[in-house]
Amino acid sequence: xxxxxxxxxxxxxxxARQVAREKIVPVRAELDEKEEFPWEVIKACAAADLFAIxxxxxxxGLGGGILDLCIAVEELSKACAGVAVSYAASxxxxxxIVLFGSEEQKAKFLPDVAxxxxxxxxxxxxxxxxxxxxxxxxxxxxxxxxYVLNGTKQWITNGGDAEIYTVVAITxxxxxxxxxxxxxxxxxxxxxxxxxKEIKMGxxxxxxxxxVFTDCRVPKENLLGKEGQxxxxxxxxxxxxxxxxxxxxxxxxxxxxxxxxxYSRQRVQFGHPISSFQAVQHMLANMAIKIEASRALxxxxxxxxxxxxxxxxxxxxxxxxxxxxxxxxxxTDAVQILGGYGYMRDYPVEKMMxxxxxxxxxxxxxxxxxxxxxxxxxxxxxxRAQA
Amino acid sequence: MKIIVCIKQVPDTVHVRxxxxxxxxxxxxxPAIVNPYDLYALEEALRLREAHGGSxxxxxxxxxxxxxxxxxxxxxGVDEGCHLSGREFAxxxxxxxxYALAKGVEKIGGYxxxxxxxxxxxxxxxxxxxxxxxxxxxxxxxxxxRVREAGIGRIVVERMTEEGADVVESSLPAxxxxxxxxxxxxxxxxxxxxxxxxxxxxxxxxAALGADEARLGFAGSPTKVVKIFHPEARSGGEIxxxxxxxxxxxxxxxxxxxxxxx
Lengths: 387, 262
What we know:
By secondary structure, chain A is an alpha+beta fold.
């Protein structure tokens, strides 16, 4: 399929593809096995300017849109979703600065993000605040020129390895959802430490860790947007980033599909390559249909966002739910096509199946995201009924 | 430090086929790439620039389409690209090529170091580097696997040998040819590719270089290719099967009967 990409988008695809082929594929199994943060690959992504994609040109970036970012994520994910999520989490952690940062904040933080010298991370989730983001317990209390943060964030991607964290904390509990605020917290700030490093089913080379704030004093200049805007910052950021999770899922599925298609032509049973059997052909056909449908959805939504659309929560949510469910199905089928070999670690598809699962869970479980879509539909029809 | 890197556009040998009748290489539809060894030279030049400042200029000789090799170098981060192009250069052997490159280097001027890949993957002669140094009258350091120190007027390198390495110190300017052990070349960057898109090489013909045309191209090449042929494919062979001890005994017997050993 030709998606009529711009010259820059084709350049991004080619560049990310080369990084994936030459720097990621040779080491992905080892990174997965050792649960090692992929610093060498991250450096290669930085050298290739992949971290510059979503940063405005004024701050050393390329000024690319969500589609540009999705293309890079898709290509990296074809090779290894663990690497791709480490890359994408830097985008998730710094998009709030791009969207809501002051001139000073952008000038201070974004150039280092664009060059890949410093990674970003986004910290919303807590032990008691997953799908129910309103349950955030971390507090930020104003004290002179500082805010004092206390609390623990959980399952933070790039935790420990990132240097720039956007952290959601409660500044005024009496105001409910309007009582949260977002702060930029730098690694090394006194009172900011890292807790448990998680051992995971998939995306094992990425780091997932607790952030612990103990009387951590953050300068008031690091407040993103206004006090009380915390959830708005978070929701607007997630609306922008969700197609990126879709792109991750898409990449994983495409990677698994490619492995399955190649294998099916090589594997001979009953005297014929298994690709000649209709049962296998239909599986491949269904996988290809779902992958292409996902790509069409993700690219369309990303373009819609990049066109300057105002409200795209519903579309953005769709571009996460559908591809992630699809990736789980497609990777499962890829393992099935490879049969016993597919279940073994000698082939990459079992890893892809493990990696796919998280895309249905993080940045909003597919259940809570269906709530977003459902609510949006109900509102839309309520409006129509009034008109 | 001003560094010049000599690069060559070559056919991607992974895709090359030989026409069995004529013995000539089928160039049609074969993608052209930067000679892989030259990528190590480019990488080393970029690293030296990062460490010591200065500039890196890529220099190539070749037909108009060879400008693509310079564009690839720009995408990797090279500052400038110079292209020696014109009919006068066509058909040159290593002597004529190195003479042309020497004239190009002199035209660029003010250089401290010239880097080359140890050889090109199409001709495999490894002659252009040393010949270039000879034309310029500067030292040549071949098969370098590591640059230990580099400064104005002085360089210390490790030259790879079969047993290990020689550590050699030389004055600059000098010509250094590098082996693939020296580094891991970077990949092109997005910003580099964007620069490359609008890049126009500085192009010089023989007249612009003030070169003696009798020493260029086919006319200036003492090497004459008499015949190119594809070695005949050997078939057959003998496979000795059986238990290891038995195979070893039969192999030894065979080698003795052929007079390979006694």
